């Protein structure tokens, strides 16, 4: 069963860390997710007064999780990496996760993090292992 946006929102509402960061799902389809995080709180900033790398990583990882679980089969990260390309101090960040190939056991995903102007902030690559069980709550 492929998740739609409402199912994904219901299931991933249990991600308390992403909720605390203010991350929301914008769009979901098979192997794809677009999520957003408004930069509205002091908690998003590091000591240099730019968005904390952990906040950017959380946004990218969340989009990766939704995209990799969108097939309805439980998928868990086994390897991820991120490159930070540009600092950000305000506005909104968007993460767009795309499945590289239709996976059976291992899924590879590319995630770009951009700002509201489309400037590239970070690139994230993730590898997910698909378990032989459905996504809890689906």
Question: Would you mind describing this structure in some detail?
Answer:
With 138 residues, the protein is of the alpha+beta class. The protein is 22% helix and 42% strand. It has a six-stranded antiparallel β-sheet with strand order 1-2-4-5-6-3. A hairpin with a 6-residue loop joins strand 4 (92-99) and strand 5 (106-115). It is globular, with a radius of gyration of 14 Å. The mean pLDDT is 92.
Helical coverage, percent range: 10-25%
Question: How far apart are the termini?
Answer: 8 Å
Strand content: 35-45%
Low-pLDDT segments, ≥5 res: none
- Rg over CA atoms, rounded to whole Å, is 14 Å
Shape label: globular
Run of helices and strands = HHEEHEEEE
- Averaged pLDDT: 92
- Major beta sheet summary: 6 strands, antiparallel
Strand order of the largest sheet: 1-2-4-5-6-3
Number of extended strands: 6
Q: List the total number of helices.
A: 3
What structural class do the secondary elements suggest?
alpha+beta
């Amino acid at each position: 069963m492929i998740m739609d946006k409402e199912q994904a929102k219901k299931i991933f509402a249990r991600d308390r860390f992403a909720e605390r960061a203010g991350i929301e799902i914008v769009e979901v389809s098979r192997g794809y997710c677009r999520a957003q995080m408004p930069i509205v709180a002091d908690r998003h900033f590091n000591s240099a007064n730019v968005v904390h790398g952990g906040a950017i990583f959380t946004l990218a990882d969340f989009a990766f999780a939704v995209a990799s679980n969108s097939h309805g089969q439980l998928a868990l990260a086994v390897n991820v990496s991120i490159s930070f390309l540009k600092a950000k101090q305000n506005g909104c960040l968007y993460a767009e996760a795309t499945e590289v190939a239709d996976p059976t056991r291992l899924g590879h995903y590319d995630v770009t993090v951009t700002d509201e102007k489309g400037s590239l902030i970070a690139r994230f690559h993730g590898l997910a292992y698909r378990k032989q069980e459905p996504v809890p709550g689906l």
